[in-house]
Amino acid sequence: MHAIVIPLPSLLPPDSFSGRTVVVLDVLRATTTIACALAAGAAEVRVFVDLGSARRASRDFAGPRLLAGERECHKPEGFDLGNSPLEMTRQSVAGRTVFMSTTNGTRAIQVAFDHKTLLKAQPASACLAGALVNAAVTAQAVRAMDRDVLLLCAGSDGEIAEEDLVGAGAILSALEKAGAHVQCSDDAGAVEWCERFVKDPWRVLKQTRGGQKLLGAGMAADVVACARLDSVEVACHIDDRLRIRGVTPEQV
Predict the structure, then answer these.
(1) Nearest 5°: CA angle at 151, between 111 and 140?
(2) Which of 42, 123, 127, 135 is the most exposed place for a label (fewest CB within 10 A)?
(3) Measured over all CA atoms, what is the biggest interatomic distance in the chain, rounded to whole angstroms?
(4) Is the pLDDT of residue 123 over 70?
(5) What's the whole-number mean pLDDT along residues 115-127?
(6) Confidence band (pLDDT; 50, 70, 90) for 121?
(7) Edge-to-edge strands of the sheet including 235-238?
């Protein structure tokens, strides 16, 4: 299996999705929050680039629903939940469709979707949302698809986010532990970042730019939650309508 780590959506090569499984990562915090929402029983998560689109889609939806998201770390006005994995409790989200818009993560998922559509990639070229919390089950899903993999990091405000590289490295490590022979194009150093993380998870994540931003916003508990490697056993599959559903290890 050949793996490619892309540290920013703006660096995607034109033909990069061809024949590959794509994993989008925004470790602090969108893809972690999505994984936690689905693990807590959310029916699905629908992602949007801007707040207005999320609000309109939620308003027009007839079933049980929630608005979740953030701008500059905080919950937007009128939203039910922010972008915190700790808010995604069974009591809050079970059975509901979550309409979500964040600064970086949902935009990266949209970029992946647009890229795939422009290339007219086959539906079998699946997209997943991955994080540290579901690295092992995401690797299991990637391996089951039996394709090369592209790990797309969301970054932060157009800059590389080290925590996303840590997440990519964790998925690569899990693939190898599961017996996959991985040849990796990793100019961004995801494997090295993951090795640092394993030795001292809290220290590594809190020292990233994203970690520092959350600490400054009084959200240290979110950084801790996002560092819980393999604490969630749900793979997050993104379909061709930008709807994300959870799949357990038994279903992979």
Answers:
(1) 120
(2) 123
(3) 48
(4) no
(5) 63
(6) low
(7) 65-69, 97-101, 44-47, 243-247, 235-238, 127-130, 20-25, 148-153, 2-6, 183-185
